[in-house]
Write a structure and sequence with these properties.
Blueprint (H helix, E strand, L loop, with lengths): L1 H98 L3 H18 L4 E6 L3 H16 L3 E6 L5 E6 L6 E4 H21 L1
Parallel strand pairs: 1-2
Antiparallel strand pairs: 1-3, 3-4
Helix pairs in contact: 1-4, 2-3
């Protein structure tokens, strides 16, 4: 009887041991499979992060390069324009301003222009002249110019006009502007292409 009990105990022990071994091996295999999956997922995530970082670095490098190129082109264009403006001013703008601030020169030009108006316009004329020349030009407009045109002419004097004049019908329907600014702009328009070609090819 004792032998049978021992045999039964041994058999139960061996069966439990075998079953525990099988379950342990299965748990070990599952843990190993899970760890391999975790490692694979971590590697994939690390690879994706590195690829994303590389893409972002490339995008940033491209953006910085584009911005620098655009900024340098704008700077170059602005510098060229400044050089052109300086040369054009030196070539004529100051001389034009001086000439259009000279009372005798203005009188001769205004007489010529107003004479053409007188022949074609039935309405009275309006003049805008520099405020700083009022004392010299106002008597001339009221007397000599009005008599020469044989029609009324109204003269206003403005601080906005540094040199030159504007002239047109009193109703303001249109006018001719020959101020230092408009004349300098006209000269600059014709000089700019020549200057640009000489300077920059």
């Amino acid at each position: 009887m004792a032998d049978k009990l021992q045999e039964l105990t041994d058999r139960l022990y061996n069966e439990g041991l075998a079953k525990g071994r099988i379950e342990g091996e299965k748990m070990l295999a599952d843990a190993k499979a899970q760890s391999e999956e975790i490692i694979a997922a971590a590697k994939a995530e690390a690879k994706a992060i590195i690829e994303q970082a590389g893409k972002e670095a490339d995008d940033l490098r491209f953006k910085v390069s584009s911005d620098l190129k655009m900024a340098s082109e704008q700077c170059l264009q602005a510098t060229k324009k400044d050089i052109e403006n300086i040369l054009i001013k030196e070539a004529g703008a100051d001389k034009v301003k001086a000439a259009l601030s000279e009372p005798d020169f203005l009188k001769s030009v205004i007489s010529a222009v107003a004479g053409k108006f007188s022949a074609t316009e039935a309405s009275d004329l309006a003049l805008v002249l520099p405020q700083n020349l009022k004392d010299e030009l106002e008597p001339w407009v009221a007397n000599e110019l009005s008599k020469a045109l044989q029609k009324g002419i109204k003269a206003d004097f403005s601080k906005k006009v540094a040199g030159g004049f504007t002239i047109g019908p009193k109703d303001g329907s249109w006018f001719v502007s020959l101020t230092d600014e408009t004349f300098a702009s006209l000269i600059a328009e014709y000089m700019r292409p020549v200057t640009k070609k000489l300077l920059f090819g």
